[in-house]
Amino acid sequence: MSKDKAKEAEAPEEGVDGEAPAKKKPKMMVLIIAGVAALAVLGGGGAGAYFMFLKPKPAGEHAEEAKDKKKDKKEKKGEHGAKDGKAEAGAPVVKEGPDGVVFYTLPDIIVNMQTADGKATFLKLKLTLELPNEELAEELTPEMPRMNDMFQTFLREMRPEDLSGSQGSYQLRMEILRRVNLLVAPHKVNAVLIEEMLIH
């Protein structure tokens, strides 16, 4: 058998007009197109991620973000202390006063007082602290649990006769002022104002 005839016998039979190789070419084209599409999707996603998360922001955007953070911080502080007389239950009310002072009205304080005869007697106090600035009001709000504890401990030891007359009210204000200033040191509260004092 000649070499040419041997090659023809080994070679696979081609269909009419060479159909077998044509079937292989479309499969290769589909794979190439799918690969290019996958690269385009991955490249587009990577570019999108870069522009959204990694690209440096212009200077103006940093200033806006700082303002937004400051605003969020103030709103969170508003959860602790209400302003302009609109108070949530148990939250202090902060109002601006004359000459830059700030009035910080505490939630009502109710304590059971000691009496000589053992009769149940309650003291209800509504106090306002006069503060030198709003920054102190912002620092004072997180201290509310400590202040409440101080008021409860101190006022429970008082007797109704300790509060009688203007001298009793004056001494009460001075003692509360001294104790609050110890709590907020090195800052200083200007004055304690008694808005309401009831003994039941």
Defining traits:
six-stranded mixed β-sheet, 200 residues, disordered N terminus, Tetrahydropterin Synthase, Chain A
Protein architecture, described:
The chain has six helices and six strands, in the order H-H-H-E-E-E-E-E-H-H-H-E. The chain folds into two domains: 3-54; 83-199, Tetrahydropterin Synthase, Chain A. Strands 1, 2, 3, 4, 5 and 6 form a six-stranded mixed sheet that branches. The radius of gyration is 40 Å and the shape is elongated. Mean pLDDT is 74; it is low at 1-9 and 74-87. With 200 residues, it is an alpha+beta fold. Strand 2 (93-96) and strand 3 form a beta hairpin.
Order of helices and strands: HHHEEEEEHHHE
Low confidence ranges? 1-9, 74-87
Strand percentage: 15-25%
Radius of gyration: 40 Å
Specify the CATH architecture of the largest domain: 2-Layer Sandwich
List the topology elements.
Layout: H1 3-10, H2 19-54, H3 59-80, E1 82-83, E2 93-96, E3 102-105, E4 109-113, E5 121-131, H4 134-140, H5 144-156, H6 165-184, E6 191-199
Parallel strand pairs: 1-2
Antiparallel strand pairs: 2-3, 3-5, 4-5, 5-6
In short:
By secondary structure, the chain is of the alpha+beta class. Helix content is 53%, strand content 18%. The model is unreliable at 1-9 and 74-87 (pLDDT under 50).
